[in-house]
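Standup, Tuesday
Yesterday: got the pipeline producing structure tokens again.
Today: sanity-check two examples.
Blockers: none.

Example 1:
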Amino acid sequence: MRLGFQVSIEGGYSRALERGKKLGCDCIQFFIGNPRGWEKKAPSEEDIASFKRENSFFPLIAHASYLIRPGSRKKKVREKSMKGMEFELMHAHRLGVNYYVIHAPGKDQDVKFFIEALKSMRGEVEILVENTAKSSFSSLIPFVDAGFGICLDTAHAFQAGYDWKKEETIREIEKTIGMENIKLLHLNDSKTGMGSGRDIHWHIGKGKIGVEGFRCLLPHFLHLPGIMETPRKSDEDDRRNMEAMRKILEEL
């Protein structure tokens, strides 16, 4: 399994590559600009050229900014989200990004609007829809039917009520979204309990999923890349999580 982290682009996109290398990543995920603001600075041609020249990671993943809500029932939010997605996908393509991950819509968004928006944005960068802490696997069927791949977050699935220690969780995935439609894993432990609906990530093996939960789920997904979005105060946190995940994989 190819492993990596969400890394910061502070100081330029090439700095994200440096951070990934320091942490021993095989793949990385990052935001295109500030994830909590609408205004973003486009990467320069020089930054793009440097990034593509230095990149050795695969896949490269960009995560949609938090404000982007293409299924919003508020027209102004929908329009701003469309412009934001267009900007991010354009520059993701310039950077050579493989996947663009966006959270599945919540109750405040319209699924039809959301899917129509994603369809209009299809291009060189493949868009993946990520399950949330309140997403049932069956709620992802419309996105698969529309031709979109899935990014499966282990913590979110657990928080939505799926027990990774039970084989029936895998059977449920097979019956609904289909294993073949999952293109990427977000490998996160959960600080909150199963079915909590509360999205709080935690350190690998230290949360409610635990080492045993990962031992049960990982054999089904070894062919996929896995990105960790675990809490970090320093590089040491990431190194510990990488070590914990590699240890689990080695012992399978």
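Example 2:
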Amino acid sequence: MIKGLIAVCLLSVIPHGFANTSTGIEVTGKSSIMVVPDVFSLTISIKERGKSANKTKIIVDDKSSKIVKMFIKRGVNEHDIDTSQVSMFPIYEKPAITFEHQELQKRVSSQEKITLSGSNNTKDKASRLTRFEVSRTITISFKELSIYDQILDDMVKLGVSHISPVEMSVAESEKYYQQALYQAIDNAKQKALSIAQQAGVKLGTLLSLKESGFYSPMRYSMASEAKTGFSTLITKKAVSAQVIAIYNIEP
């Protein structure tokens, strides 16, 4: 009798439990806030080659100093300029191979077949150090995009080897994301209410809420070119949030 009663109770409880977990309205709430990027960064590199490592580094340091002074003159804070990345490496060349006192200068492809007569007169087969390459990478952060158009010509004149695209970001992206997140939650609720109304049911309490999406323009690049008389323009970027909400349906 007791086992029979237990079996009857389980049969009556299990379906009811499954009905509660599967009953509800699931919606996705989305929101985006348009923000103008207000932080910009630029990476430039200076590269020189010379026979003396010390003299080559002096040239790179001199150019670096002039570039830093130029940015400070344009209003960039010295603390926003990073010049710590310096690299130096030697350049080796293999000696020429001579046959019967004539230097072989022409490089021949693997498909060509050439027969050379005579003996190899090269005595020193070791590679020899010929030059040094010294480079410095400078990263600059600034808040006024107008600086970018002003310094392009100056950097070229100062001997900059490479200028990267400008990278843009939003300084207070987390603040804007929180705003977008709250709006996404409201959007999810409005969707659920609309669905319940169309279905002819009454929306109940919130059963589950999950943050499911995030986007902020942390690093947005643009081309590193500018024409004389043309000002670089920027557009607003979206800071987006997304949530998944499940609401109960009242009986």
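Quick observation on example 2: The first strand starts at residue 25 and ends at 35. The first helix runs from residue 2 to 22.
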